[in-house]
Amino acid sequence: MKEKRLDRESGGFLELESELAREGNRFFRFAYRLCGSREDAEDIVVAAFVAACQNHHRLRDTEASIQWLYRIVLNQWRMHRRRHSLPSLPLTEMDETGVQFSTDHIALAQAMERLSPKQREALVLVKGEGLTLKEAAGLLRRPVGTVASHVTQALGLLRKELYPSADAEVGREVRLKHELP
Amino acid sequence: MISTGRVERQALVEHLSTCAECRQKVEFDQWLGNALGQELTLPPQAMQRVREGAAMPRPNGFLSFLSTPQGAKTMKKTFLTSAAAAALILGISALLTSPAEASSAKAKFAAMKKALSSRQGVKIQLSNDGGGATKTVVYINGQLMDVKDGVPFEYQDGNKKIVISTATSKEALDKLPPEQRAEMQRLIDEAIKQAKAGNGTATTVSKKVIVNGKEVTGEEAARILKSTGFNMQTKTSKDGTGLELELNFDFNEGSYSAMKFGSNENTLLLTPRKGLNTRYSVVLDPRTNLPSTLTLQKASAGKWKDVKVSRFRFSIPLK
Predict the structure, then answer these.
(1) Number of domains in chain B
(2) Residue A133 and residue A130: Cα distance in Å, rounded?
(3) Is the pTM of this model over 0.80?
(4) B153 with B10, same domain?
(5) Which of A50, A90, A105 is nearest residue B54 as measured by Cβ atoms?
(6) Which of B169, B161, B215, B225 is nearest to B192 (CA)?
(7) What is this model's ipTM?
(8) Cross-chain residue pair A84–B128, CB shorter than 8 Å
(9) Same domain assignment for residues B71 and B20
(10) How far apart are alpha carbons A174 and A92 in whole angstroms?
């Protein structure tokens, strides 16, 4: 009965709900990459989806629903970050659902925590979610150049963090190459 | 970033074959894209939570009204008066805690206890504090158990006895001082003995765990435990040193000298009789009255500062 009421009042509610169910994994992954915790990611996605359901009448262009949802998830993560300013629980080898993470992924999650929120947001949208710089800039409401700069900085920091010896090795290889006749 | 033009692409490939630095950057870029884009599955209960949340009345109905022209006009007229009144009320509330508020805060505290007691036997996980350690609290038979690290404990879940050991991995065990290692080994042996004797389910927090007398991986254990309807949640620390089990909250009403609401009626501020310049801020789920966040605060330079935050998650759906 409740569902009928919602549907009658607001047209595409059920359509939105089925879209949320279909795209749940995508936004869970997005939230997880931002916050680094499954529990927090679930809370963020639930809060975002509830907000989406309650405000779906504001969505004028249904084609843009994915971008709209990205923005809501992003806002929820920002609010979540403000509310929980203490460091979050680090990713562990086995999380509560029994998913095994490789050492690389643990190191990546830890390195991601060291990025600034702006760098993390830009990196996850562009490298993780496959958005173009223009799309990411639109979502983040920042200039394209700024987003590109954040992505580059984040990549550099992660590379330095995850492969600290790599630059030294490359340098050595380059030096050797130049020493050859 | 990588051009798709044929000539440019060929030039790029040629360059990569000779330039280690660029090659490494491209490889890293690809690896990162794959790692960040790895599929994750939204827990099934999440959509149920969304449905429940969406079915609740919209909290921002008033804001929607304000966004209409009529609402904006009304807002202009009433804003200053309302803001002044609200500031006055808030100021008075902050200065004085009325007996009526204290009694309703006590009622809220009682409601929280009642909500918790209806969830007996439910494992509550997890907390999150400044130190980043993993902690677990367990609520059993109306009492939250104060479980010390390294001590195996057991309890009845229906007709099933659950034994949980805080055993650790062999590598981490070897690093312990001899007497601590011997004690830990004794605890592990006890947990394994219990499990092998068919007394129930035992799990360790190390990579290898004992479930129903069989040594399995943590992943298999989680699956087995899940299939029994007992939503076991375990976490390991990266170095395998085990799970820290800790409880630092007292649900006895008499332990608090003052009890009042915080920023809203879903936040309780509890001043313990013991502990100088300390208080707890407990945020309750308005729907269930179950605690969702517990924050230890300390007074510093006339302000309350968050020292430690514990967040609760109830792993079994509401009855």
Answers:
(1) 4
(2) 9
(3) no
(4) no
(5) A50
(6) B215
(7) 0.72
(8) yes
(9) no
(10) 38
